[in-house]
């Protein structure tokens, strides 16, 4: 018998709301108020999320971020900065004690990322898990420049990026599945020693990362990808997804946290 998880389709939300929702869901699951959760969402306006430990100063071009109408937000999870624009974003929240969740972060990545693998399959796109060779030494601030263990790659190019944290006995893994990417905008958001280095890095990006609509035989919309990846997670994790809608009171809790924490410069620019 398949286990039932909650499924939340948030649609497009602000960067602050998206990060607040992930944190609140982690709390609720930790308190036993809800079962494991899969959540899908988009970003409006576009956002740039920086990793929990990442420095903003000297890495992110804050003026350019503002010029493009992008909102900066700090994640609970580690890793490097991610531009969230033309993508489907997912969150998985599940107890560390769950019988199917390995204690190793790396192995838990593989279990959860089976949902992503099946999502790509559902779209008719062949993807694989990345197995990095040797030590990763790339000091770039850009997340999509290099795949980590068990991230999804298509013909060796990174196709989805994920990050994981464990708090209050709960695993939170969230990640990006880009449909398209504006490379000019993306590389405008980061600080480089000079324009030549910036342009060289941007040109090399196409050899390292790929988007769904660059490899698919037909163009896919946000809703197309959402439908496919919902089926993919059900198959990959062997679960049934039950739609869950937050009450007005619950939504108010998320909105309050978004305002007080994730729209707060002290949190977002603290490193």
From TrEMBL:
- Chain ranges of the BPL/LPL catalytic domain: 32-241
In alphabetical order, the GO MF annotations are: ligase activity
Q: Which CDD domains match?
A: LplA (cd16443)
Any keyword Ligase? yes
Keywords of the record, alphabetical order, are: Ligase
* Family matches, as InterPro entries: aa-tRNA-synth_II/BPL/LPL (IPR045864), BPL_LPL_catalytic (IPR004143), Octanoyltrans_LipM/LipL (IPR050664)
- The protein here is known as Biotin/lipoate A/B protein ligase family protein
């Amino acid at each position: 018998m398949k286990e039932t998880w909650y499924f939340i389709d948030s649609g497009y939300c602000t960067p602050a709301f998206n990060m607040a929702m992930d944190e609140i869901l982690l709390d609720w699951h930790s308190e036993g108020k809800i079962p494991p959760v899969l959540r899908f969402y988009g970003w409006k306006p576009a956002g740039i999320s920086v990793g929990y430990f990442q420095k903003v100063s000297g890495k992110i071009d804050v003026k350019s971020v503002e010029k493009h109408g992008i909102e900066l937000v700090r994640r609970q999870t580690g890793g490097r900065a991610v531009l969230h624009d033309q993508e489907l974003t997912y969150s998985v929240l599940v107890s560390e004690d769950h019988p199917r969740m390995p204690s190793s972060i790396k192995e838990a990545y593989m279990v959860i990322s089976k949902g992503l693998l099946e999502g790509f399959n559902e779209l008719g796109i062949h993807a694989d898990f990345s197995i990095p060779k040797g030590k990763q030494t790339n000091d770039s601030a850009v997340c999509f420049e290099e795949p980590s263990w068990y991230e999804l790659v298509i013909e060796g190019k990174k196709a989805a990026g994920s990050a994981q944290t464990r708090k209050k006995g709960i695993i939170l893994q969230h990640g990006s599945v880009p449909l398209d990417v504006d490379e000019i905008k993306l590389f405008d958001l980061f600080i480089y020693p000079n324009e030549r280095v910036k342009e060289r890095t941007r040109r090399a990006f196409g050899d390292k990362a790929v988007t769904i609509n660059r490899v698919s035989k037909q163009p896919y919309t946000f809703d197309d990808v959402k439908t496919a990846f919902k089926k993919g997670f059900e198959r990959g994790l062997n679960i049934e997804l039950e739609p869950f809608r937050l009450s007005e009171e619950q939504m108010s809790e998320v909105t309050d946290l978004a305002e007080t924490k994730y729209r707060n410069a002290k949190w977002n620019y603290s490193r």
